[in-house]
Structures are given as C-alpha cells and as structure tokens.
Amino acid sequence: MSETLNIDLHTHSNCSDGALTPTELVARAAAAHIEVLALTDHDTVAGVAEADRCAKGSGMRLVAGVEISASWRSQAIHVLGLWIDPESSSLRRELESQAAHRALRMRKICVRLSESGLPGERLLAAVQANPGLPTRAHLAAAMVADGIVARSDEAFKRYLNRGRAAHIAADWPALEVVVGWIRSAGGAASLAHPARYTLSAGARRRLLTDFAAAGGAAVEVITGSNAAHHIEACAQLAMQFGLAGTIGSDFHNPEVPWNPLGRLAKLPAGVTPLWRSHGL
Predict the structure, then answer these.
(1) What's the average model confidence in pLDDT over 121-138?
(2) 211 and 191 in contact (C-beta within 8 Å)?
(3) What's the confidence (pLDDT) of residue 1?
(4) Among candidates 224, 252, 200, which has minimal Cα distance to 24?
(5) Which long-range contacts (CB under 8 A, 24 or more apart) does 27-34 make?
C-alpha cells in the first residue's frame, strides 16, 4: 500500500506563511488526489484541527504536524514534527514561546527598517494584519505591496538577509531541544530540506550525526525544490545515518506553479518510508 499512496508531508496554510486556509488547502489536496496530507505550519498547530475535520469529510488522512525553527551551530534549521499530538500541553507551551519570539523579532526588524528611512510601522501593521504567525515572508510581501521592492526576493537581498540593514539574527532553540519537543508530543522528527542549508558536505554530515543522536527519525529526501542530485544526496544521508525518509512539497501558494501539492517523486530504493512505521 505504501508504495502507491499519494503522500505530501510538508505543507503550509495561512496559519503561518501559506496563502490558503486549512480548509482550502485540504480541498486543493483532495482535488490533487492526495491520500495522506500533513499540515506543517511554522511553529504553530493552530490549523490542524480545522484541516483534520475537512480531511475526514474528503476521505483523506490528515497527519498532524508542525515545522519548528531550531538552531545548530548558529545555523537556522527547520525540523518537521509528524504524527504529533497537537493537543500536547508541553508542545503548545513551547510553540507559544516560539510565537512570542517571532513577534518580538518582527518588531525589531521593522525598527531597523524605520532607521533606514522606510515606513517600518506601516509595514509592521501590514504583517500583523495577516491571520498567521508573523514571518519574514509576510514582511517581504508587505514591502512589495508598498512599492518598496518589486519582488519578495529583492526584499531579502536588499534589507533582510544577513549583513543587510534590517537583519536581526534569530535566537532559535537548539536542534536537540526541538527534537525533544517533538518526541515528547508523540511525534517523529524529520530534518526538513537538508540540501537547502548553506553547509559543506562535512558540516552536513555532522548535522545529521547530531540530529540522529538527538532522536531524529527521518530526513526529508524529496521536497519541492530538490533537483535529482539533491534527492540522491539526501537519500545517501538517510541510509548512512540509519534514518527513514519523508517526502513533501513545502507547498505555500497555488500561484507558484512549479511547486504544486503532491506532485512528488517516489523515495529512492533503499530508503525506508517513515510512514511505514505508522501503518501506511
């Protein structure tokens, strides 16, 4: 059964930085014939209950998930928590802390923008008008809407990236701490898009060593932005460190045509699907 399922274990709704409500996301996934869908919003489980209700009505299986920001050797790392208990009081407490950190960081960034002669207070208000947790993606979109930049990537290159005037380093909790949160909520931790981090091959192996030692369960071998050589490299890492594999589009917005829901390759031979240990 697991070899033929249409699975997408990495998606976002407007509870974080996605464009669709949880209901709209599930409807779109159903239209794409996805059978198992994980909602993995950034640092929040606010949309999981709504998505689960809608999924039951469509016959789809909803995996409760979250994508948590962590830090490893001063590098921001994202960890997917899959098959979590979204009602876990300990997890919710830690995610509330993450949300407060995001809000404070956003205010500091907008102060920096004001100091650079930009309308920081207006941009902050635009970000706060969004229903989800504040992210730099929201801020970049607000800068486009305000006519400050032409495209979101320009906002990062000119103002928000490391070394630019409005950059504020994120002080996320350590990788092993985040993996512990996920495990304590009954979930399995998968290292999100490992090929996307700016790391040498040696550093990437050290990251996987520490992730596995912390109790990490899987590597996201296939994601929307992965080229064939990335898939092969991630598959090798999963097998080398005795980790399972996951697949996910990292879907945010239907207006990005090159990254649709569920249109994903199969896991390479030799990589054990994480979902196999969950009866799929």
Answers:
(1) 94
(2) yes
(3) 40
(4) 252
(5) 27/54, 27/58, 28/254, 28/261, 29/60, 29/261, 29/262, 30/58, 30/59, 30/60, 32/6, 32/260, 32/261, 32/262, 32/263, 33/6, 33/262, 34/6, 34/7, 34/8, 34/60, 34/261, 34/262
Please list the alpha-helical segments (H only) found in the chain: 22-31, 48-58, 89-115, 120-128, 136-145, 152-155, 175-184, 201-213, 228-240
CATH superfamily of 7-92+173-278: Metal-dependent hydrolases (3.20.20.140)
pLDDT in tens, 209-226: 999 999 999 999 999 877
Q: How confident is the model at residue 262, as a pLDDT?
A: 82
Q: Domain boundaries in the chain?
A: 7-92+173-278, 95-160
**pTM beyond 0.85, yes or no:** yes
pLDDT at site 4: 73
